[in-house]
Amino acid sequence: MKPDPLYDEARLQEIVELDLLAPDVDPILADLAAEAASRLGLPVSLISVVLDEALHVAAFNGPPGLWLDETRGHPVEWSFCATSVRTRDAFVVENAEEDAYHRTNPLVTQDGVRCYAGVPLISSRGHVLGNLCVVGLEQRTFSEDDVAMLRALAAEAVRRIERRRVG
Amino acid sequence: MNLSAQPGPARLPGYDLREPTEDDARESLRRVFGAERGAERWTAACREAGLTAGRVGSTALLQRVVQALSAQGGPAAAVARSVEIRIRTYARLSAAAPSGGQG
Question: What pTM, to 2 d.p., does this model score?
């Protein structure tokens, strides 16, 4: 069986080498998250770092008062972004209540998430570090152009992230 | 991280989340480093925190060991952050229940 990339030691090593868990990452990437949300008219956007057992929020854009902005992360089993770490491709959920996996996700059942679109942040070393993603509270469709726009912002995020390499 | 066979603490209603334990953290290290190296990492972190592996019996003590684990750097620091986030999420949601925010 193919190993789960979530637990790949080299991937986690690169995340730490890039210092992506430091609080000063947010101001470097927040404008990209904000642009994604603004262009798609959605309330929440993130740049996530997917760890082994949790999603870490590297940059957050959304209304004040959300618990995610306080915890700066959540358990990985609730993470839409983890899918892209495994598939290395964009992941779109247009109606989370009908998604086979996420319809029982507490972010859906308790917090009202209904749509999600995320694209992977792939480093020059080939590791999927996390995602740039948008989240909404109503179901909606995402076009190929929407995903292409997210990919362009994600590429810029990776460029900025890789300037931080310390290892 | 539903990895412990022990009955353990209660799960947070709605979120089906329970507070992380030492067993959870050790299992996380095993998944990333393998059994032997994972155990070595945990034992070293416990020693650094002034504790004994297998006797980290509270969240406060677990946080001390996780801090020491983070100081090891590399993938251990990533595992440590995962445990921290899970502790923080449990604390935030259990304090706020039943109302929360969107994540």
Answer: 0.93
CB proximity A19 to B under 8 Å = no
H or E, element range at A118 = strand A115-122
Interface touch A54/B81, C-beta < 8 Å: yes
Diameter of chain A measured on Cα atoms: 43
CA distance A113 to A110: 8
Q: To the nearest whole angstrom, how far is the Cα of A120 from the nearest Cα of chain B?
A: 18
Min Cα separation A8/chain B (Å): 6
Instruction: Tell me the Ramachandran region of residue A46: left when phi exceeds 0, alpha when psi lies from -120 to 50, beta otherwise.
Output: beta
Q: pLDDT tens for residues A39-61?
A: 999 999 999 999 999 999 999 99
- The question of ipTM being above 0.85 is answered as yes
Question: Three-state SS for B99?
Answer: coil
* Number of C-beta neighbours around residue B69 at 10 A: 27
- Which residue of chain A has the CA closest to B101? A66
Phi, psi of B75 (to 5 degrees): -60, -30
Cβ pair B101:A76 closer than 8 A? no
Give the relative orientation of helices B22-33 and B59-71 as an angle to the nearest 10 degrees. 30
Give contacts of A70 with chain B, Cβ < 8 Å. 92
CA separation, residue A158 to residues A28, A41, A132 (Å): 11, 23, 10
